[in-house]
Design a protein that fits this description.
Layout lengths: L4 H4 L3 H13 L8 E5 L5 H9 L4 E6 L2 H10 L4 E4 L13 E6 L9 H10 L1 E9 L1 H21 L6 H12 L1 H29 L3 H24 L9 H17 L2 H19 L1
Parallel strand pairs: 1-2, 1-4, 2-3, 4-5
Helix pairs in contact: 2-3, 6-10, 7-8, 7-11, 8-9, 8-11, 9-10, 10-11
Length: 274
């Protein structure tokens, strides 16, 4: 796949802000050398260099185009062509920081990958990766789904069940509602209004309440229609997506970020049931 660094950097500020936020969470005041995994055109590497003056920064990426752009823009740093799934080929370790923003979720075999990343650290070094959060979110969602399948026999994905029921009578209208209307309405309500207002009071409370209400919306009608309160257990399955979309809204600084993610998720659900 070819990457266009110029196109990527058209949204430089938006793409760089998550790296700035992640670097601020690194509990070190000094670093001699740091590794940026999935460095792209070097904007995240520059954030590391600014945060730890004097550190030797090495950026790696699987895209030759990105590495060339990074090397041209930041000649004071080292950039190497290396796939995140083959970090052992670097032949170097002892890093104070192994950093990666929005990269490792695209790399398969996470247990091996995380082991490789940790092996590159010196004793007491720090692994900082925003991708770890998303991997954890979706991993937890998968675990929740499997556990619920043991407790409740039959269909536990109510979202797919609802889509199938509506597609029979009005497929085009259903696709419009599921992929466009529902994401806009639900994200405006749960992320924009509930999460946005409660975050001013307490960030944790904003996540908790917005995720619980989002989950309740998707299961209450099934519990009521079938007279079975055990369906409320399925709220657990919607807590993780709710948290991911709240996180996306918070990090992107725009409601359209979570609307787009919600629309993509629902679109994939439609494709799955067709």
């Amino acid at each position: 796949m070819l990457w266009d660094s110029d196109l990527y950097l058209q949204f430089k500020a938006e793409r760089t802000q998550p790296s700035i936020d992640l670097v601020k969470r690194i509990p070190l005041s000094h670093a001699a050398k740091a590794l940026d995994v999935g460095c792209g055109p070097g904007n995240s590497s520059r954030v590391l260099a600014d945060a730890f003056p004097g550190a030797r920064i090495t950026g790696v990426d699987s895209s030759p185009e990105m590495i060339a752009a990074a090397a041209a823009a930041h000649p004071d740093m080292t950039f190497r062509l290396c796939d995140a799934g083959d970090l052992a080929s670097l032949g170097e370790n002892g890093f104070d920081i192994v950093f990666s923003n929005a990269c490792i979720q695209w790399v398969p075999d996470h247990p091996r990958l995380l082991g490789d990343m940790l092996s590159l650290l010196r004793p007491g070094g720090v692994l900082a990766s925003a991708g770890l959060g998303l991997v954890g979110f979706y991993g937890l969602n998968e675990i929740c789904g499997r556990l619920l399948g043991l407790v409740l026999e039959g269909q536990v994905n109510l979202n797919d069940e609802a889509i199938v029921g509506r597609m029979v009578d009005a497929p085009r209208t259903t696709i419009l509602i599921v992929v466009v209307l529902a994401p806009v309405v639900e994200e405006t309500l749960f992320r924009g209004y509930v999460f946005g207002n409660l975050r001013e009071v307490h960030r944790g409370l904003a996540y908790l309440v917005s995720c619980l209400l989002f989950a309740l919306l998707h299961v209450w009608q099934f519990a009521a229609a079938r007279g079975d309160l055990t369906y409320l257990l399925l709220m657990v399955q919607y807590l993780v997506p709710g948290a991911v979309m709240a996180w996306t809204y918070e990090r992107s600084g725009s409601l359209w970020g979570s609307v787009l993610l919600h629309g993509v998720v629902n679109g994939l659900a439609v494709v799955r049931v067709l």
